[in-house]
């Protein structure tokens, strides 16, 4: 099989994203196949305007399967993210899917497992993200995709579990792998000049965030609101309906506030302590946790496990609370402008945003680089940069964090790179990551050649030209 260097440099799609789209898929994607066409099971296309491909199994690896829709989704994501369409690219994605299934089969043989609690947490996080990003109601989503959110969650959970096992296997096999500068240069030099990717315009921007500290007065207001809700429940109103109306927990849309069975250590200490203090069906008084203020009803407890439901309300900062945060950042900005402290150092010491503070305040892409394209940048930040000059530090700006907290931030517009053809000088991090990905892929491919003899593998003849089972591949 030909080199996949250009495919890797264009960037492989994160398989976690594939799981979310696959869980919602009703009809498999259509598209070019490595051979230009294939038959389907259960029907055929009847015309270009209304045609669709019935899903089919295209590979079997022990007790695991790869479907045509899985391949088409992965390939389409690759193209959507800037990859060049080609039969070679599709073959590469089929190889990845088959290898992942082989890892799952070998994981069973070698007793490699992931904790159910971790799988549940990751699944719930992805469900919350799906719901929040859709902007739709539960009923609209269920009508759109033809299945209940509980069905989606069950399907997604198995995909999440498989991905976590594959990641665990890959991490173990490629632990400690690194690349040298000479390897990066050699990798880049082998890309044909006429095949160098065109890199979109990018910017480097950093932030220092101050989350508004909610005053005790505001917290007491929230507790009062929850006390009123508690009285309504005790008077006979439905807990789930009130949770959907008032709770700030994003999962409430699908679960009505019911958290399901949890063991010790699964929830934050404050929540868990309350669960073991209450009697079945008892409703707590308002109590605080790092997420906000709750009221909880214990549904049932069995030994060290419990099922509960809750309503969470995050106290809202007052105008004065926001003004205090603004003054705090304004004083830090003054120190930076007067060169009393560097922006990166100030971000590490004072910023409340955990994902960026460790990186000196800089936003980063999936590969860890600090140059982001327009598509990777928050639109609100992009429009703000449009009114700034390179090197400028903004005045404090009020905004809301991804988890809904009221906050203020200052932005540092460090630099901008115009659209250009890929080069070592301007794109070292991207090329270094592509080099590392290829090196790891070779290690995994060697493992595949050795491990494939331990399990049954069958590839649909339509994909023979991919040479997945060739000895010299």
Automatic annotation (TrEMBL):
It holds the Pfam family Rotamase. Residues 200-300, 303-397 form the PpiC domain. Residues 28-48 are annotated as: Disordered. GO terms for molecular function: peptidyl-prolyl cis-trans isomerase activity. It comes from the Bacteria. SUPFAM superfamilies: FKBP-like, Triger factor/SurA peptide-binding domain-like. Residues 30-48 have a biased composition (Low complexity). This is Peptidyl-prolyl cis-trans isomerase SurA.
